[in-house]
């Protein structure tokens, strides 16, 4: 793979000494004029308590123009163990150019246009304010010229090193675990900080969104470089960022996220490693996924080379994991680490769940096993696979999420397609179109912050009630035949009028070209979407139960009506469940 600097064009930014306006700034942006109205950025600058145009903008421009800091690196490809390094000045150079929208795409993009341009989005405004605080604090430190940090982005492919959990015999030591009620940032003694990561680090883009990972990166902006450098994480890979300083403090989460000022200890000598480890999104109690996530935690904690690591509800929330089970996985993985390691678990008050999860795993040092999931084993057992909760004298079995990873890596969009009829293929940016950046695969990736948009026979400038109807997608599951007993649809980030109101699900045991034939499909569900009452943006509707008793390996999902007049149908996720 060739080297890359991620700078679109080496430019010299000149800021006039007088009469500088917001238009002066946007005229410097390396972007088409139609995107230059950036209301969020303008609002943030207007609300600052210092003269941004005089005190800070010329400094950012100087940093972006200092091409002696250009650093050509080889990106970190999947399946490799390797690292790249930047000085703090080189990171500042890239982020200063990103401020002017002058970067190129690596594995992901650090283009800030999505938070600059979306009109008056509150989360976007707070994320911009975090970025400006990073630049402001650096401008103050520059006078002392004492920031000589090295930022290291380290990718580890650890499959051949995995422990054989079935053979681990060391007891779990209570002394290795410290639980306290506070947010993770309150643990100042910790040397490692767990990122509840997406396998595409930070979704490979910067959006008006505030998950734990996105908040972490806004508080530590140098971490954004990992978006460019790192390929999508495989099931036996983690990434560690070393030397990224925390500049910003915050409050809230999601829609309540808010910038509150500079981090009190941003000049501290203790700079925490960021442990980037993604969790599985479904089938949490399958042997494969138990082993997968144990491996993720073990690798991240052991490669961190730190004594104290702070974590929390990793693998829970949008990842769908059980808090108790994911906590115990972290505890068990810690006992398999040969260096002295303590984990600090943070939690909120009154959120401990009562369940029947049991762990019979004990751990020890040293044993290894093949990275092939089919050959690994563990003594972890759980009653959660058949968890029951008492409700009105009944035992209610909890469903589990079915992975929508496809057997060939593709999800096929369709338009003008009705139940039991042949599929008509949708293609990006053509008739029956969907945007190439908002494809059917985005409805199956377990990420609420991506979405699938289909215009059907309409286009972006054409708006009638029929636009986007009878569209959807089909795929063949990589996991094989599954018994679907429920489905759930989730809203996207905007335009509630595009929400599906009625939907259908069909199953098939055919493959490949046969899946284009209507005769291959059997109806499983046809009815309301569970979104009759708008749950808000980036939320899921009620789970719709089916009376299905047949396992299918392929599924086709269609939308037949939407909330209101609009140019398309959109949704962030389709979730299929089994009991």
TrEMBL record:
Binding site for substrate: 198, 212, 253
Keyword annotations from UniProtKB, A to Z: Hydrolase
Biological process, per Gene Ontology: ATP generation from poly-ADP-D-ribose; carbohydrate metabolic process; nucleotide-sugar metabolic process; regulation of DNA repair
Catalytic residues (positions): 195, 213, 214
EC number: 3.2.1.143
Ranges of residues in domain PARG catalytic Macro: 176-336
InterPro entries assigned to the protein according to its UniProt record, in alphabetical order: PARG_cat_C (IPR046372), PARG_helical (IPR048362), Poly_GlycHdrlase (IPR007724)
One GO CC term on file: cytoplasm
GO MF term (any one): poly(ADP-ribose) glycohydrolase activity
Domain PARG helical: start-end pairs: 51-155
Keyword Oxidoreductase: no
Regions of compositional bias (Basic and acidic residues) in chain numbering: 418-430
Region listing for Disordered, in residue ranges: 418-445
Family to which this protein belongs: Belongs to the poly(ADP-ribose) glycohydrolase family.
Protein name as it appears in the record: poly(ADP-ribose) glycohydrolase
Biological classification of the source: Eukaryota, Metazoa, Spiralia, Gnathifera, Rotifera
